[in-house]
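User: I'm writing a tutorial on reading structure tokens. Could you give me a worked example: one chain, its sequence, then its tokens, then a sentence or two explaining what the tokens reveal?
Assistant: Sure. Here is the example chain.
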Amino acid sequence: MAYETIRYETRGDVALLTLDRPERLNAWTPQMASEQADAIGRANRDDSVGAIVMTGAGRGFCAGADMEQTFQTRLDGRDPGADTAGGSGGMPHDVDWVGMLRESKPLIAAVNGAAVGIGMTMILSCDMIVASERARFGMLFIKVGLVPELASTQLLVQRVGLGRASEMCLTGRLYDAAEASAMGLVDRLATPGDLLDTALTLAGEIAANPAPQLRMIKRLLTENGCEVDLAAVQERESELIRECWRSPEHRQAVAAFLQRRE
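And here are its predicted structure tokens:
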């Protein structure tokens, strides 16, 4: 697929995906979602890639959905593209955004500016959120007569708690990076000049670990994060531990430890 709204490159063993509509503060469109999905799939198929970083070009990360190309198009009686009416949360019908990110190689959002509306909900499924001190966050759906999407009414509560999530969704106000960090929405803060290096370094640290086990851990965190049955939690863990015992990665790591080498 040729990309028109994003850029894709690799930095060592990390894939870098950049939203690339800077003149529109990287406002989201269904085409962008399809290109993001293609790029994430491309990174997942590349054995030389161990982790993915997603950021935005210019001053913004993603200023929500492109009002003209999405909402106004739909109000005019036309689908914005790729059967979003039949998709999940306004995504093209063939893009399961939440499922894709949770099954993907580790993915870090490097939020360089405004991340509002779908610009915020798209990153809640990421494994970590690193933000510039200039970043801004907002669940602005109530301001345009909508409700949040992409499982954000659960994922946001997991990150910041019910009270804060309620405040964010019901007021529709904007939060600066310091507030977002204090409430647990952001995992790491960085200066604007250090943001990308911080995210790429963290991604590289993750990418150095065994790829199959990284995906297993993501699966456990996804399935067990809201599980109330501790027996079920332990059974899932035990099933994957037994699989790890048989893996070459585990065998090599034990041998290296016993031989005092990396």
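What the tokens reveal: The first strand starts at residue 6 and ends at 11. The radius of gyration is 19 Å.
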